[in-house]
Amino acid sequence: MKMKKGDLIIVLVLAAAVISWLIINNPDRTSGERQIVIETNGDLYKVVAMEEGMERQEIHIEFKNGKYINIVIDENGAYVRDVVCPDKVCQKTGLISKAGQSIVCLPNRVVVYIEGKDESEIDGISF
Ligand SMILES: [Zn+2]
To answer: What is the per-residue pLDDT across 88-108, written as a single tens digit (0 to 9) for each?
Structure first.
């Protein structure tokens, strides 16, 4: 099948319409009220609001005996970049980006999780 120039334009216009529809209906973009919460030893350590285009920041937390954890936070979510941890489960978790997801470092007693509006969406699927 050979396409004429006019057909190609129609295809492009339709594709653009579909893409913009997907962006508008993407809950990650429309909710926009998410925050990354870091807890150490069960206490609140830091809360960072997730915003589009926000600057990447690295949070360095030191523990006793020279142990530490480096958590990177940016508009995509949070992950453990570097850690002194026997099992490194926290680092292996990788990036968390959706509300309700969490990174847990049991040996250092650190919890990182995302709080936000799209949290209820997960419950909505299973009924
Ligand atoms: Zn860990």
So the answer is: 999 999 999 999 999 999 999
Q: What element of type H or E holds 121?
A: helix 120-125
Task: With H, G, I as helix, E, B as strand and everything else as coil, classify residue 56.
Answer: coil
Given 2.120.10.30, 2.60.320.10, 3.30.450.30, 3.40.50.300, which CATH number is that of 32-125? 2.60.320.10
Q: Please tell me the distance between residue 105's alpha carbon and the centre of ligand 1 in angstroms.
A: 4
For the record, the structure tokens of 52 come out as: 């589009």
pTM: 0.68
Ligand 1 centroid to Cα of residue 72, in Å, is 14
106 neighbors 12 (Cβ within 8 angstroms): no
How many CB atoms neighbour CB 49 within 10 A? 12
C-beta separation of 44 from 37 below 8 A: yes
Å from CA of 69 to ligand 1 middle: 8
How many CB atoms within 10 Å of residue 100? 15
Q: How many whole angstroms from 40 Cα to the centroid of ligand 1? A: 12
